[in-house]
Amino acid sequence: MSAPDRLFTPRFFLMCGFSFTVFLSAFQLFPTAPFRILALGGSAAAAGLFLGLLTYASAVSAPVTGMLADRYGKRRVLVIAGVALTVFALLYGVLPSYQAMLALVVVQGLFWSGLLSASAAYLTEQVPPSRRAEGIGYWGLSTIVAVAVAPAIGLWVYERGGWTLLCLEAAALNLGMAAIAWSLPDDVHRTTGPLDFALARLVEWRVVGMAGTLFLYAFGYGGITSFVALYADAEGVTPRALYFATFSCAILFTRPFVVRLADRVGYRRVLFPCLGMVALGFALLALGGSRAIFIASALCFGTGFGSVYPVFVAYIMRHVEETRRGAAFGGMIGAFDTGIGTGSIAMGWIVQHVGFRPAFGTAALLAALAAPYFIVADRRWRRWVEH
User: Fold this and answer.
1) Distance between CA 99 and CA 318 in Å, rounded?
2) Can you give the pLDDT at residue 147?
3) How confident is the model over 112-142, as pLDDT tens digits?
4) pTM of the model
5) Residue 51, SS3?
6) Which of 37, 166, 208, 349 could form a disulfide with 42 if both were Cys (CB 3.0 to 4.6 A apart)?
7) Rounded CA gap, 157 and 164, in Å?
8) Which distant-in-sequence residues (6+ apart) come within 8 Å of 156 by Cβ?
9) Which of 288, 184, 290, 285 is nearest to 237 (CA)?
10) Considering just the CA atoms, what is the radius of gyration of the chain in Å?
11) What are phi and psi of 321, to 5 degrees?
C-alpha cells in the first residue's frame, strides 16, 4: 500500500478511540433516560422528547457549529465539547424533575452537533480519497462497538447502582473523551477571511437537499433508540439490550465488506439495497414483538443501516471543498438529527396512543421513501456537479 493510500495511521486510531468513548457514554444515557423520565412521573411521549429535543437542537445548530469548526479548528471544538458534555452528565445526576432534564438536553444538543460535525470533518482529512467509504466505515465501527455494549452496561448500572452512579460514569467517560481530543494533532484546513453568518454561507444547501435521504431513514432510528428497550419490556423479550447487541453485531460483520465494495463498484449501486434493508428492519418490528422477530429485524436493520451513512458521505464528499467539509457535515448531521428527533417525538406519541407496532409501521413507510427521494435529489445534484 503506497503512503498516499495508507489508511491505518496513529491519528486514525486516536479518532476511533475518541468516537468509541463518545458513543459508549451517550448510548448508556440515551436508552436509559426514558426509564428515568418515567420514574420521575413523565409519560412515554415525554420520554421520547429527551432524544427528540437533543437531536432537534443539534440539527438546528449543526450548520453553525460545523462552520465554526472549519474556522477555529476541529480539534479545539472537540475538546470544548468533551468538557461541556462532562458537565452535562454531572448535572443530569442531580436534577430533580424530568422537565429540568428536557430543558438541559436542549443545551447539550448544541455541543453534540459541534462534536459530530468536527469529528467527522477531522476524520475525513485523514482518509485517502480513494478509500473514503472504507475509512469512514471502519471509523464508524468504533461507534458501533460502543453502541453494541453501552445500552446493556447502562441498563445494568441503572438497575443496580441507580441513575446518579450512571451519570457519574458517563461524566468520567466524557472527560476521557476530552483528553483524547486534547492529544490529537491540530487540523490543517481552515476557513480564512471575515466571519460570514449569511445563510448561504452557513448552510451547504445542495448537501441539505441530498440529505433528505438521511432524514427519512433516521426517523425510525430515533424510535429504536428511545423505545426498542421499552418494546422488549412490553413483549417480555429478554435481555432488554438484545436489539442493540444484535444490530451492532450485524454492522460489525457486514460493514467492512460493504464499504470496500462501494469504493470499487460505485456508491449508488450499494446505497439502494442498504436502504431497502433498513425499511425491512422497521417493517418486521411492525409485524410483531417476539424474540425471533426482534433478532431478524435487528439483523436486517444493522446490515442496511450500518453502511448507508458511510456510503452516502463518500458519495457527497467527492464534490465538497476541503475548507467547507465542516459545513457540509453540519448539513448532513442536521438532516440526520432532525430525522432522529422527529422520529423519537412522533413515535413516542404513537406508542402512547396507538402502540408500538403502528409506530414502527410508520417508520417503515418513511424509510421506504428514502430510495425514490434520493433518485430525484441526485438528478439535481449531478446537474450541479456537471456545471
Assistant:
1) 43
2) 77
3) 988 888 888 888 777 787 777 778 878 878 8
4) 0.71
5) helix
6) 37
7) 10
8) none
9) 290
10) 20
11) -65, 150
Mean pLDDT of 326-335: 76
Q: Which three cell numbers mark 253?
A: 460483520
Block residue for cell numbers 458517563: 170
Sequence-distant (≥ 6) Cβ neighbours of residue 262 within 8 angstroms: 133, 269, 270, 271, 307, 310, 311, 314
**Collapsed DSSP state (helix, strand, coil) of residue 211:** coil
Distance from C-alpha of 328 to C-alpha of 315, rounded to nearest angstrom: 12
Show the cell assigned to 158.
Answer: 441503572
- Joined grid coordinates for residue 184: 490529537
What's the pLDDT at 285?
94
Measured CA angle at 215 (ends 367, 365), to 5 deg: 20
Residue 47 CA to residue 75 CA, distance in Å, equals 33
pLDDT of 65 higher than 90: no
Q: Using CA atoms, how far apart are residues 52 and 9, in angstroms rounded to an integer?
A: 36
> Phi and psi of 32, rounded to 5°?
-90, -30
Return the sign of the alpha-carbon dihedral for residues 67, 72, 78, 84: negative
Could you tell me the pLDDT band of residue 189, with boundaries at 50, 70 and 90?
Answer: low
> Using 50, 70 and 90 to split pLDDT, how confident is the model at 299?
very high
Judge contact between 92 and 101, C-beta under 8 A: yes
